[in-house]
Amino acid sequence: MRTQARCAALSLIALIAPIVTASAAEIVYQPGKVDKTEARAPIIKLKGEIDNDAIVEFSHYAALADANAKKLGFIVEDQPHGLVTVELDSPGGGMMAGMEIGMKMRRMNFGARVPKGAVCASACVFLLAGGVSRSVEGRVGIHRQYVKDDDLVTPEQQRASYAEDEKLIKAYYKAVNIPTTLYDRQLRIPGNEIVWLSKSELQTYGLDGDDPYYYEAMNAAVAKKHGLTKFEFSQVVSSAKKICNNPKTAFACVQRLLAERASKK
Questions:
Q1: Does any domain span residue 49?
Q2: How far apart are CA 222 and CA 215, in angstroms?
Q3: Which entry of 19, 60, 72, 93 is 20 to 30 Å from 35 by CA?
Q4: Is the dihedral of CA 126, 130, 131, 133 positive or negative?
Q5: How sure is the predictor about 78, in pLDDT bands with cuts at 50, 70 and 90?
Q6: Is pLDDT of 144 > 90?
Q7: What is the CA radius of gyration of the chain?
Q8: Exposed (0-12), middle (13-18) or buried (19+): which is 10, by Cβ within 10 Å?
Q9: Buried b (16+ CB within 10 A) or exposed e, 19-46
Q10: Does this model's pTM top 0.70?
Q11: Does 177 reside within a domain?
Q12: What is the pLDDT of residue 103?
């Protein structure tokens, strides 16, 4: 009787879809803008399911956004790519597709943002992790890999399959400077469930805030370019925050203060 009940329960679990439903990805490119009231870098908005088609479409818009950022001057000194933000609102999708887009974001030094009211769950977390800067105002949810047509019927087969995924995912997290303990947490959450991370957990796993290595490297590059120490450059940034007090003009404000400082020498 107990065996029958267990089999019935497992059959029911297999039929349950993930909590967050998905639809094909919609990707929108918003060019940057520079005028007297606003200096805004380009934005790519990705909404819906992450699949192979999304890789192709994202790559197209990534090239456009990168070129636009450079044209408008949204670039940190001699870096090969411009400053672009990718806004995410996705329930997930394919693991490999998520990591491929996330790695493309990392190679192009794109930032990632989950806006207020948006969701970034399952494979979407790979895109968030790929950003050199990560900002979360919405919700981020995790679980272990969900396999729709799973035919591995022994624990040994499942262990071997998950071991392969673990190697891939942990290597990816290391490449984008995310603690591999995030995967360990994901593994403990069934694929048909979602655990929403708290603000504290997002920061612990490095999913909300700047990549420390990228941040320090860019500060050093800008400081060196302008003949400043990193400490002196940090003072310029602090002054910009106090003087401008407007995220839309923050980049332009820092550039203006650096120019003013140079003109006084």
A1: yes
A2: 11
A3: 60
A4: positive
A5: low
A6: no
A7: 21
A8: exposed
A9: ebebeebebebbebebeeeebbbbbbbb
A10: yes
A11: yes
A12: 97
